[in-house]
Amino acid sequence: MQSFYKVVQEDFAEVNTLIVNQLHSDVGLVENIGHYIVDAGGKRLRPLLVLLTARALGYNGNQHLSLSAIIEFIHTATLLHDDVVDVSALRRGRPTANANWGNAPSVLVGDFLYSRAFQMMVEIGEMGIMKELANTTNVISEGEVQQLVNARNPEVTEQNYMTVIHKKTAALFEAACETAAILAGADAATCKAVRSYGYHLGVAFQLVDDVLDYQGDAEELGKNVGDDLAEGKPTLPLIYTINNGSAEEAELVKQAIINSSLDKLQQIVDIVQRRGGLEYTQQCAQDHINRAKQAIALLPETEFRSAMEDLADFAIKRNH
C-alpha cells in the first residue's frame, strides 16, 4: 500500500463501507450498476484528497468521511456519463456499465449517484461546501460539452485544451481539497492554497493520462492504448506534434483526429515520440506537480502533508 493511503487507512476503509451503504436503492438495477462500477475500484484519489486535506488541517470530526463518499459519487457519475458519450467498452480492465446494461440505464444510474451525493451534502449542512460542489458539477458538465465540441477538431489550441482538462478533471480535485478545508474551518489563504494544490495535481494527472495513452500497457491501464485517438480527442501530445512536426507529419495526425482512426496508430506514436510530444507533455505535468507541492508548503509539517507530497510524486511517476 502506498504511503499516502497508509496514513488514512482507517478513514479510507470507513469511506468504502459508507459508499456501499449509500448505494442502497429499492430499484435493483440501480444497486447492480452502482455496485458494479464502484466495486471496480480504481485509485479513489479524489476521496483520498478529502481525507488527507482534512487531516492535514487538523480536522478531528467524522463528516470528512461523508464528504469523501460524496466526491466519489460525483466522480463515478461522470464516469458513467463519459463512457456513454465516448462509446467506451472498457474501463479499469472490465467492460463498461453501458457495455453490459446499455446507455439508458448507465445515464440514469449516473443521475442517481449525482442526486445521492446532494442528499448527503444536505446532511452535512455546510452551505460553503454545497456551493462549491454545485459550482463544480456545473463546471465539469461544461468541460464535458467542450470536449465533445473539440472532438475530431485538429485545430484545438493548447490553451483551449488546458481549459477543458481543468474543467473536466482538475475541477473535482480542486473541490475535494477546498471542501475539506472548509469542513476543517481553515482560513481563506489556506483554502486557496489547498485548492491550488488540487488544481495542479488534477492537471498533471490528466496530462500523464495523455502520455500513457500512447506508451502505456493496455492491461495495466485498464483501457485500450490509443483510445483517445480512436475517439478523435486532440490531446496535448497530438497538439504539440501538429505544431512542431513537419507539414506531412502534422497532416497525418490531423487526419487521424478528424477520422477518429487508429489505422496508422504506430506511425503516429512514432511521430509523437520523435517530435517530443510525449516528453513535452510529461514536462508540463512535472511543472504542475512542482507547483502543487509548493502550494501546500504553508501547511503544518505532518505525516498528512508528507502524504500529499508523496501523492503528487506518484501522480507523475505512475504507469497506470
TrEMBL record:
<dbReference type="GO" id="GO:0046872">
    <property type="term" value="F:metal ion binding"/>
</dbReference>
<dbReference type="GO" id="GO:0106350">
    <property type="term" value="F:all-trans-octaprenyl-diphosphate synthase activity"/>
</dbReference>
<dbReference type="Pfam" id="PF00348">
    <property type="entry name" value="polyprenyl_synt"/>
</dbReference>
<dbReference type="InterPro" id="IPR000092">
    <property type="entry name" value="Polyprenyl_synt"/>
</dbReference>
<dbReference type="InterPro" id="IPR033749">
    <property type="entry name" value="Polyprenyl_synt_CS"/>
</dbReference>
<keyword id="KW-0460">Magnesium</keyword>
<keyword id="KW-0479">Metal-binding</keyword>
<keyword id="KW-0808">Transferase</keyword>
<dbReference type="InterPro" id="IPR008949">
    <property type="entry name" value="Isoprenoid_synthase_dom_sf"/>
</dbReference>
<dbReference type="GO" id="GO:0008299">
    <property type="term" value="P:isoprenoid biosynthetic process"/>
</dbReference>
<comment type="similarity">
    <text>Belongs to the FPP/GGPP synthase family.</text>
</comment>
<comment type="function">
    <text>Supplies octaprenyl diphosphate, the precursor for the side chain of the isoprenoid quinones ubiquinone and menaquinone.</text>
</comment>
<protein>
    <recommendedName>
        <fullName>Octaprenyl diphosphate synthase</fullName>
        <ecNumber>2.5.1.90</ecNumber>
    </recommendedName>
</protein>
